[in-house]
Request: fold
Amino acid sequence: MTFAYDALRRRPDIEGEGLVAADAADRLILDESAAARAGAATGDVVVIGDAYGALALGSAWDGCRGIRVHQDALSGERALAANAAELGLADAVVSRAELDAELVRGARVVLLRLPRSLDALRDIARLIAAHADPAVVVVAGGRLKHMTVAMNDVLREAFHRVDVTHARQKSRVLIARDPHDGGDPAPAAARVEAPGAPGGVEVRAFGGAFAGARLDIGTRMLLAALAEASSLPGGTSDDPWIDLACGTGIVAASLALRHPAAAVYATDQSAAAVASARATVDANALADRAVVMRDDGLQARADASASLIALNPPFHSGAALTTGIAERLFTDAARVLRPGGELWCVWNSPLRYRPALERLVGPTRQVARDPKFTVTVSTRR
Reply:
């Protein structure tokens, strides 16, 4: 019996809108890796970047066990766990939040969904080259529209041999062998001038973190608006300012540097973002006042427990454009905000989020706008 790709679900991630839990690239990676996986011993197979479990559970369906899996998104981890339980394969996979040596140590087969960031791919390739079995075979694939020739070059930085398969259903696979020049991931470092942060902020960013070690223009606009506010509610140890979908943690760090007595709380579901934000906190000597958590939204926070949340919402689910992620975050922010609490949000002006903010959070006023970005403050009703 063949593996039932259609049985996989994306939950707790957003569903509908034409979004799928498995695609042609997943099928091609499994087909191209079948010979390498045949007869694999327990622990030989590692899966990286599996969106909702197709690669890990397809391998388990074929008999592999002890499959180590790293997914950057926490929602992906939870979808994998739910799908594995429904298919009776929960004992075949082990999720690991860290992209580290233990994830790939001794691996003989690595299945990889190619990340869109070349820096993220470089981190992964060098890690595998440093710690996997010298005979490791890396089967890395993706959709053609998201692949570039530069990915081949990045893989060649860590593998002597990189072969390219024929395309199928607008997908392709790269197969890398014979590792060399490996190493553990290290964050990029930069000092950036951030509005309201005297002397700037030391930013740290691992390869998969949004915007890298720089200040993107939307976040800059949000920080400028926050810096111009005459006062901000909260900021105490029992009511910290929250940096939701924090990325590298630059908003949390900037607020804490501008207000030396303030407590901040940063959260993101991306493992790369959380590792980056923790490194940013350490680089700015803020560990005594800043907490960084990996969480799907604000699930770890109690209802009506915060007075201020800052948010620059993502608008991609994997490669797909969607407004669903932002609306989920608005809803979660509304739950966590106290009555009268404030959600400071920056968003791409063409997305026109204001009606959703009014509906889900409360009265919303515009505090800054240009053709690209809008900053609003929504008060919890």
